Amino acid sequence: MSAEVVALVVLVLVFLIATVRSINMGALALVAAFVVGTAVFGVKVSDVLGGFPANLFVILVGVTYLFALARNNGTVDWIVHRAVVAVRGRVALMPWVMFVVCAAITAIGAASPAAVAIVAPVAMGFAARYRINPVMMGLMVVQGATGGSFSPIGIFGAITNGVVDKSHLPGSPAVLFFSALGACALISLIGFLTLGGTKLLQRDRETPKEQVATLARTGAATGSAGESTEDPEPADDALPRLDAQRALTLVGLLVLAVGALVFDLDIGFLALAVAVALTLIFPSAARGTVDKISWGTVLLVGGIVTYVSLLEDQGTVKWLGDGVAHVGAPLVAAFLICLIGAVVSAFASTTGILGALIPLAVPFLQTGQVGAVGLVTALAISSSVVDCSPFSTNGALVVANADVSERDNVFKRLMTWGMTIMVVAPVLCWVILVVPGSLS
Predict the structure, then answer these.
(1) Which residues contact 6 (CB under 8 A, 6 or more apart)?
(2) C-alpha Rg value of the chain to the nearest Å
C-alpha cells in the first residue's frame, strides 16, 4: 500500500473515530499528522508543524477575543438593535441582509474570511437574540461571501480568471461570477427554507402591527403569545445606548473593517490589536473574555488543517490529480476533478485549490472534448461552496462566534451541510455546466 493511500485511509479513520468517540477531532488529527508524517512520509516534526495554520489561529483568536469584548460591553446588543430598526422590524429579512452585505464586501475585492470575520459575529448575535437558526444564519453569511468573491475584481474571480488566462484557455468572467453567485444564492435559499425561514416569515406576518412598529422604532419586541422574540419591551432608557466604551468599540470595529478591507491588513493581528487597546482602556469589561475565545474550535480546525497540509506538502493531492488526468474518458475526468476540488477545499484553502486544479485540467481541456468555460466554472463552484464546512476558515468563524450553548450543534450541522454540498455540488455542476459543453 502506497504512502498516499495510507495517509488517506488515516484521514478517514480520524473522522470515524472522532464521530464514534468523544474526542476533539483536531487533537486526533494532530497526533495522526505526527505519526503519518514521521513514520509514513519520513519527514521531521518541524516539517509537520510547518503545516499548522498559524494565520488561521490568529484570525480565530483575534476575532473571537474582540467580539467577546464587544458582547461584554453591550456593543453587539446595540448593533443588533440598530439592525432590527434598519429592516423595519421584519426579522426574516435579516439573513438575506447579511448575505447581500457579505456578497457586496467580497465583490469589491475583500477576502472572503475578512468579510465573514467582520459580519459573522453580529449575524450570530442577532440569530441568538431573535431565535433564528444559527446554522441558517451562518450558512447564508458564508455563501454570500463566497458568491461575491467571484466578481471580476473579487479574490476568487481574479485568481480563477488569471489561471485561465495563463493557461491560454477560453474564459468568461461574467459566466463565472453569475453562475457562482447564483449557486450560492440557491444554497442559501434551500438553507433558508429548510432551517426555519418559513417560520420566520410566518412569525413576521403574525406579529401584531404594534409590535412591528416597536421593533422598527427601538429594535426591541413587545412579545406576543407563544411567539415572543424578546423580553417585554424595555423602557427607552433601558435600550442599549452609545456610551463612551461602546462608541470606542465601534470605532475599533470600523478600524478593523477599513484596515482589512481597504488596506489589506492582517485581520487576525488587527483584531488582536484593537482588543488589546480596548482592554487597556476599559480593563473592567475585559474580565473573562479570554475564556470566551473558542479554543475548542481553534484546536479542531488547526489539527485538521495541519493534517491536510501534510498531505498537500507530500504530494498526495497532486497524486490524486495526476491519477485523474490519466483517466481515459474526459467527462469522467472532469467530474473527478470537480469532486477532488470540493473534498480538498472543504478542509483546506479554496484559493490554493483554484490555483492548483485548473492547470491539472488543461491537458484534456485542450482536446476540445470538454468545454473549458463550463469545467472551470464547475470546478470553481464545487471548490468554493463547501466553505461552510466547519473545517474551512469561514465555517470555523461561524462556529467560533455561535452562542456557547449552540456551538456543538452548529459544528455538527455545518459539517453535515458541508459534507452534503461536497458531494451534491460537483454532481450538479457537472450535469449543468460540463455535460452540455461536451455534447455541443
Answers:
(1) 36, 40
(2) 23
Q: What gap in Å lies between CA 38 and CA 10, rounded to an integer? A: 14
Closest CA to 279 of 245, 303, 229, 309: 245
SS3 call for 199: helix
Do 54 and 332 meet the contact criterion of CB atoms below 8 Å apart? no
Residue 22: count of CB within 10 angstroms of its CB: 6
| 6, containing H or E segment | helix 3-20
User: Percentage of the chain with pLDDT > 70?
Assistant: 84
pLDDT tens profile 291-323 = 878 787 788 778 887 888 888 788 886 777 667
pLDDT digits (tens, 9 = 90+) for 193-225: 999 999 999 887 876 665 555 555 555 554 443
The closest of 327, 402, 399 to 369, measured between CA atoms, is 327
- Using CA atoms, how far apart are residues 243 and 365, in angstroms rounded to an integer? 60
Cell 459539517 sits on residue:
415
The CA distance from 348 to 353, in Å, is 8
Residues 6+ apart with CB under 8 A from 268: 55, 57, 58, 59, 60, 61, 62, 63
The span from the CA of 149 to the CA of 385, in Å, is 11
Residue found by looking up cell 488589546 in the block? 276
Q: Which residues contact 398 (CB under 8 A, 6 or more apart)?
A: 116, 120, 124, 134, 138, 139, 141, 142, 388, 390, 410, 414
| Euclidean distance between CA atoms 358 and 372, whole angstroms | 10
Classify residue 84 as left (phi > 0), alpha (psi -120 to 50) or beta: alpha
Rounded distance, CA 261 to CA 417, Å?
28
- Distance, in Å, from the CA atom of 191 to the CA atom of 135, rounded to the nearest integer, reads 9
Residue 188: DSSP 8-state? H
Measured N-to-C along each axis, helices 350-365 and 316-325 cross at an angle, to the nearest 10 degrees, of 20
Taking residues 357-363, report their average pLDDT.
Answer: 67
pLDDT, greater one: 70 or 32? 32
| DSSP letter assigned to residue 236 | G
d(CA 354, CA 225) in angstroms, rounded, equals: 51
Of 347, 279, 231, 307, the closest CA to residue 43 belongs to 307
Angle at CA of residue 381, ends 378 and 387, nearest 5°: 150
Q: How far apart are the first and last CA of the chain?
A: 42
Provide the phi-psi class of 264: left if phi over 0, else alpha when psi is between -120 and 50, else beta. Answer: left
pLDDT band at 76 (very low <50, low <70, confident <90, very high): confident
DSSP string, 119-131: HHHHHHHHHHHTT
CA separation for the pair 110, 259 (Å, rounded): 11
